């Protein structure tokens, strides 16, 4: 499977032939928004939800663009051989041919998309999923984390801090409350109830987070969207993180201490199973 073809401003071309201006505002100012969308067997997973969030991000940063996103992304995936791919789509405000903070609405946005292979997490089964270890640290980001902006420097620095501590992810704390991970949402389970930080401008409204809550509602698993203090992690029965490319992942240790008995929890196994069945229904065309 080739993943070398990218999409840039209306053309499909080999990655090493794609060129963007050095004055592109995405490059100079991270003046751009993005999405990461998994495709399994060539089918977009929650594609509409991703496109709805993209429209939200574009509106929030006032980039105006109309495009047939499903058409472009499906064609990119097909041209790269279909299969299991993660699609990255980035739209920057474009280039004015010089570096100036102020922008002109007439500028043409730069649209870039590429694919990379991903594993079908659900095909492997719950026992194959590797649980995470995480650290807890300060959330250094701006106050519009609901916008999926490419300005990811705080996320990158903190993830690196986690990696250097031998952990997979970092859970972020702002004003005494947990927000999310550097590229994932957060869930805490206690006595059969799923708790997750409520949606606000302090977190990204994750499409996987939304799906977890939908599946929990369908299965009759109680959940609450609430403020969560980091101390609550100490007596959690289970902790999970979620993202599009990783699905729902159990957190087995936090700051070097095991979560409960340090094993994947029963509610996580149930949720993983609900995800697997959901994905199967999507693949077979039973749902869209
Ligand atoms: N990240 N929170 C943050 C800060 C994220 O960057 C992401 C996704 C999520 C989960 O959102 P979703 O379930 O829609 O993927 C939460 C993507 C995968 C990334 O940056 O690569």
UniProtKB/TrEMBL annotation:
GO molecular function per UniProt: transaminase activity
Gene3D superfamilies: 3.30.470.10, D-amino Acid Aminotransferase, subunit A, domain 2 (3.20.10.10)
Top-level taxonomic group: Bacteria
The UniProt record lists the keyword Transferase: yes
TM helices/strands, residue ranges: none
Key words, A-Z: Aminotransferase, Transferase
UniProt similarity note: Belongs to the class-IV pyridoxal-phosphate-dependent aminotransferase family.
Protein name, entry field: D-amino acid aminotransferase
Organism: Marinobacterium alkalitolerans
Phylogenetic placement of the source organism: Bacteria, Pseudomonadati, Pseudomonadota, Gammaproteobacteria, Oceanospirillales
